[in-house]
Amino acid sequence: MCVKEKYICPFTDFGFKKLFGSEPNKDILIDFLNELLKKDTGEIIDLNYLSAEQLGRSIDDRKAIFDIYCESSRGEKFIVELQKAKQNYFKDRSIYYSTFPIQQQAQKGGWNFKLNAVYTIGILDFVFEEDEADNQVFHHEVQLFDKNTQEVFYDKLTYIYLEMPKFNKTEAQLETHFDKWLYVLKNLEDLTDRPKKLQEKIFAKLFRQAEIASYSNTEYNEYGASLKVYRDLKNTIDTAFDEGRTEGIAEEKAEVAKKLKYAGISLVIIAQATGLSIEQLNKHPLKDGWVRAFGG
User: Is 197 exposed, middle or buried (0-12, 13-18, 19+ CB in 10 A)?
Assistant: First the structure.
């Protein structure tokens, strides 16, 4: 696939992990998380990347594959997910994913059940269906809440969702460092140069890492394949939702998965792109039974 843009699209699997999920670029992720979470966590000094593939407590339990999973020096856990297209039960999935870092903190013996904080962050390239009429609120921060006292009941479990299509500030309207981060995420692929308002050192590094011309042939080809997956999947699933054909989404996913597997894309990438599990992809490979197995 020929790529015409100057900078990568951060909503592709390759682009997101290139910018935020590699050890040399850890400072980019730290800067973003500090802007997003600083009022809750204090400054994050360092992070350790953890395995993106998480197993249940027994061999029969389902797996979870995170985009990025990391831990701060204070033991806080961060799941950072990029969601490219609307998906049935997306909120359910994010809650389910948060159970893995909770269970992993269990200790044998006389453990007192004290937990470190867990943050699940969803950067969304779509708008929640129930929020489509509200164009003002795009930054959702959710914690366990006591309806009677109107107070937060438990502050160590936080879900943050950014509905990126709602962020429409122009470069001239950028005021805070967080504004600049959202602007980069929303517009990076369409930019031809680093905007004058984004002259901070961290953005200079991000734009260097995002410049496609600097990539090796292998990286260029991997990005091209990832970009095609992103565009095909987003067009297919978003169209299905927009037309109200929710019953056909499983069939659409199966068709996308088939094409990707025929193209030689790894099952891990297909699972991340479609929201299907590795188990589902292996159970009915390239057969009509896929649609029934995926809930159609």
Answer: middle
As a whole number, mean pLDDT of residues 214-230 equals 90
Calpha distance 132→142 (Å, rounded):
18
The count of structural domains within the chain is: 1
Strand ordering across the sheet containing 77-83: 47-49, 68-72, 77-83, 118-124, 151-163, 139-146
Is residue 135 in a domain? yes
Residue 77 has pLDDT above 50, yes or no: yes
Question: What mean pLDDT, rounded, does the chain reach?
Answer: 84
Range of the domain at 116: 13-215
Contact (CB, 8 A) for 29 and 38: no
> Is 190 within a domain?
yes
Q: How would you classify the pairing of strands 118-124 and 77-83?
A: parallel
Using one digit for the tens of pLDDT, what is the confidence trace for 8-46? 999 999 999 999 999 999 999 999 999 998 766 678 999
DSSP strand pairing (151-163 vs 118-124): parallel
Which pLDDT score, from 0 to 100, does residue 181 have? 97
Backbone angles phi, psi at 69, to 5 degrees: -135, 125
